[in-house]
Amino acid sequence: MSGIALLKCRSCGHHWQFRRAACPVCAAIEPEAVAVAGGGTVWSVTTVHRAPLPEWDVPGGYAIALVTLDEGVRVMCRAESGLAIGEPVRVTLRDGLPHAART
Questions:
Q1: What are the phi and psi torsion angles at 56 (to 5°)?
Q2: In terms of Cα–Cα distance, which of 7, 1, 11, 26 is closest to 72?
Q3: Taking the model in full, what pTM does it have?
Q4: What is d(CA 58, CA 73) in angstroms, rounded to the nearest whole number?
Q5: Where are the domains of the chain?
Q6: Domain at 5-102: CATH code
Q7: Would you give per-residue pLDDT tens digits along the chain (103 residues)?
Protein backbone atom coordinates (compact mmCIF):
# COMPACT_ATOMS: atom_id res chain seq x y z
CA MET A 1 0.00 0.00 0.00
CA SER A 2 1.02 3.59 -0.59
CA GLY A 3 0.12 4.99 2.81
CA ILE A 4 -2.41 7.30 1.12
CA ALA A 5 -5.87 7.27 2.73
CA LEU A 6 -9.10 8.78 1.39
CA LEU A 7 -12.63 8.99 2.71
CA LYS A 8 -15.32 6.90 1.03
CA CYS A 9 -19.09 7.22 1.26
CA ARG A 10 -20.73 4.04 2.56
CA SER A 11 -23.86 4.93 0.60
CA CYS A 12 -22.80 5.97 -2.92
CA GLY A 13 -19.11 4.93 -2.98
CA HIS A 14 -17.77 8.44 -3.79
CA HIS A 15 -14.15 9.09 -2.67
CA TRP A 16 -12.71 12.41 -1.45
CA GLN A 17 -9.56 13.65 0.25
CA PHE A 18 -10.35 16.30 2.86
CA ARG A 19 -12.11 15.38 6.10
CA ARG A 20 -15.81 16.20 6.28
CA ALA A 21 -18.69 14.62 8.17
CA ALA A 22 -20.94 14.06 5.15
CA CYS A 23 -20.51 12.91 1.55
CA PRO A 24 -20.25 15.90 -0.85
CA VAL A 25 -22.33 13.98 -3.43
CA CYS A 26 -25.24 12.38 -1.53
CA ALA A 27 -24.90 13.96 1.97
CA ALA A 28 -24.79 10.57 3.71
CA ILE A 29 -23.02 10.78 7.06
CA GLU A 30 -20.27 8.67 8.64
CA PRO A 31 -17.85 8.05 5.76
CA GLU A 32 -15.15 5.42 6.14
CA ALA A 33 -11.39 5.91 5.77
CA VAL A 34 -9.90 3.63 3.13
CA ALA A 35 -6.30 2.99 2.11
CA VAL A 36 -5.68 3.26 -1.63
CA ALA A 37 -2.93 1.83 -3.81
CA GLY A 38 -1.80 5.28 -4.99
CA GLY A 39 -1.95 4.67 -8.74
CA GLY A 40 -2.84 7.66 -10.86
CA THR A 41 -2.17 9.94 -13.81
CA VAL A 42 -0.39 13.31 -13.89
CA TRP A 43 -2.97 16.05 -14.50
CA SER A 44 -0.57 18.99 -14.19
CA VAL A 45 3.09 19.46 -13.30
CA THR A 46 5.40 22.41 -12.65
CA THR A 47 8.79 23.25 -11.18
CA VAL A 48 9.05 25.50 -8.12
CA HIS A 49 12.17 27.67 -8.25
CA ARG A 50 11.47 29.79 -5.15
CA ALA A 51 10.76 27.53 -2.20
CA PRO A 52 8.32 28.80 0.45
CA LEU A 53 10.64 27.58 3.23
CA PRO A 54 14.46 27.69 3.34
CA GLU A 55 14.66 23.96 4.17
CA TRP A 56 12.77 23.15 0.94
CA ASP A 57 15.20 25.13 -1.23
CA VAL A 58 16.85 22.83 -3.76
CA PRO A 59 19.34 23.96 -6.45
CA GLY A 60 17.41 23.94 -9.73
CA GLY A 61 14.04 23.83 -7.95
CA TYR A 62 11.71 20.93 -7.27
CA ALA A 63 8.71 19.52 -9.11
CA ILE A 64 5.13 19.40 -7.88
CA ALA A 65 2.27 17.63 -9.63
CA LEU A 66 -1.48 17.45 -9.49
CA VAL A 67 -2.30 13.74 -9.81
CA THR A 68 -5.69 12.19 -10.50
CA LEU A 69 -5.75 8.98 -8.46
CA ASP A 70 -7.47 5.90 -9.90
CA GLU A 71 -10.33 6.58 -7.44
CA GLY A 72 -10.98 9.94 -9.16
CA VAL A 73 -9.58 12.20 -6.43
CA ARG A 74 -6.93 14.79 -7.36
CA VAL A 75 -4.01 15.29 -4.97
CA MET A 76 -1.16 17.79 -5.02
CA CYS A 77 2.23 16.23 -4.33
CA ARG A 78 5.97 16.57 -4.67
CA ALA A 79 7.09 14.87 -7.85
CA GLU A 80 9.97 13.18 -9.57
CA SER A 81 11.70 15.52 -12.06
CA GLY A 82 10.71 15.25 -15.69
CA LEU A 83 7.15 13.95 -15.26
CA ALA A 84 4.79 14.77 -18.12
CA ILE A 85 1.06 15.38 -18.23
CA GLY A 86 -0.77 12.09 -18.82
CA GLU A 87 2.06 9.95 -17.44
CA PRO A 88 1.10 7.09 -15.08
CA VAL A 89 2.52 7.48 -11.55
CA ARG A 90 2.33 5.95 -8.08
CA VAL A 91 1.75 8.31 -5.15
CA THR A 92 3.32 7.33 -1.82
CA LEU A 93 4.07 9.13 1.43
CA ARG A 94 7.63 10.34 2.05
CA ASP A 95 8.31 12.14 5.31
CA GLY A 96 4.54 12.53 5.70
CA LEU A 97 4.07 14.25 2.32
CA PRO A 98 2.62 12.75 -0.88
CA HIS A 99 5.24 12.10 -3.57
CA ALA A 100 4.61 11.05 -7.19
CA ALA A 101 7.02 8.79 -9.07
CA ARG A 102 6.89 6.93 -12.39
CA THR A 103 5.42 3.44 -12.25
A1: -95, -5
A2: 7
A3: 0.83
A4: 29
A5: 5-102
A6: 2.40.50.840
A7: 578 889 999 999 999 988 899 999 999 999 999 999 999 999 999 998 888 888 878 888 889 999 999 999 999 999 998 999 999 999 999 888 899 999 9
